[in-house]
Design goal:
The protein contains six helices and no strands. The protein is mainly alpha-helical. It has a domain of about 140 residues: Four Helix Bundle (Hemerythrin (Met), subunit A) (Up-down Bundle). Helix 2 packs antiparallel against helix 5 and helix 3 runs antiparallel to helix 6. The termini are far apart. It is elongated, with a radius of gyration of 27 Å. The N terminus is likely disordered.
């Protein structure tokens, strides 16, 4: 029996059509390129884990502060600087601008390049607002230190600095993320997952600060 009877021959191709079965895979044919859109993105999965860790840490700080306040009578009230209210508004505006940048950029990816420039402007405003918030927090600490409200003078002061400084450190990390997506957005080389993960982190920093600010007004 000949091989022609064992291996079926391919049907003839229409005139003008090429047989691409033997060509090497293209970039679009790489594994994972056409995964189900419902599959979780690694960047978002990682950011959710990070945010859960941060949330648990600040929940522990809050619990420790409440327990310490009720344990003795040495808990003193802090007159919060008015600049904290301004800083809160600045951070909220930064989050709004970032969300506008995200939506504008994704719309530009879908319909064309022109709106990407507008997205970069919104992102620039968000980034500068984040830096302004961080600088404002430093000014608040200097104002309190000028009033002898330092870290070791009372339990109230200690928890105030722990909450605000740890939050500022995480905001500084978020500013680094904003700088990264700013560079990529200008080159129109920003992945959706990276953009979304950075936005979720920054929005979480805004919500976390509002929580801390309310806690400071209520308990401090």
């Amino acid at each position: 029996m000949s091989l022609s009877h064992v291996i079926p021959s391919k049907p003839p191709l229409p005139r003008g059509q090429r047989d691409n079965s033997a060509l090497p895979p293209t970039r679009d044919d790489k594994p994972g390129k056409h995964l189900d859109a419902s599959a979780p993105e690694p960047a978002l999965t990682g950011i959710w884990v990070a945010l859960a860790t941060i949330a648990m840490m600040f929940a522990a700080f809050t619990s420790a502060a409440v327990v310490r306040q009720g344990a003795s009578n040495d808990w003193e009230h802090i007159a919060l600087p008015a600049l904290l209210y301004i800083n809160t508004g600045i951070l909220i505006l930064s989050g709004i601008a970032l969300e506008l940048a995200r939506r504008t950029y994704l719309n530009g990816v879908k319909h064309g390049m022109p709106s990407a420039k507008i997205a970069v402007r919104w992102l620039t405003f968000s980034l500068l607002s984040g830096v302004a918030f961080l600088v404002g927090q430093i000014v608040v600490w200097w104002q309190l230190l000028a009033r002898s409200v330092d870290f070791i003078s009372s339990p109230t002061n200690s928890f105030f600095y722990v909450l605000t400084v740890f939050h500022a450190v995480h905001v500084a990390g978020g500013i680094g993320g904003l700088v990264r997506i700013w560079v990529k957005m200008r080159r129109f080389d920003l992945k959706r997952s990276t953009l979304n993960a950075t936005c979720w982190y920054w929005h979480f920093m805004s919500v976390l600060w509002i929580y801390i600010f309310v806690l400071l007004i209520w308990k401090f």
